[in-house]
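Same chain as my last thread, 134 residues:
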Amino acid sequence: PKHLLGIGEPDDLLAGIALGIDIFDFAVPTRLARHGMALAPLPASRFRFDLTKSGSAIDEEPLAEGCPCPTCAVHTRAYLHYLSRAEAPTAARLLTLHNLTFLERLVAGAREAIKAGGFSGYRERVLAGAAPWA
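reply #2:
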């Protein structure tokens, strides 16, 4: 197995997988969560959704539509914005759950695509903004 340490951004993970990396070890999901950032299918912003910005304050939508994580199932962007701005430890926990789910689905989708012989198409779709759980 080939192990890559410290690389954990979604686009970098896909690039590493394309190069044959098998195992990744990184702190991206928790580090982003501590700063009010969630991973989302937003390639233009390097897959980051900043919940501390004022636009999220009244947004009653889930963090990411269709996301299977417990955070998206129960909480709105407005509530996560409030928690993040208040620097509540719960914000980091909820966003970490979401970020881990995002990356788990990304890698699981890559694994499935490799088995089916369609990794390059999967990679292109995700890099174009498709959700990894779609």
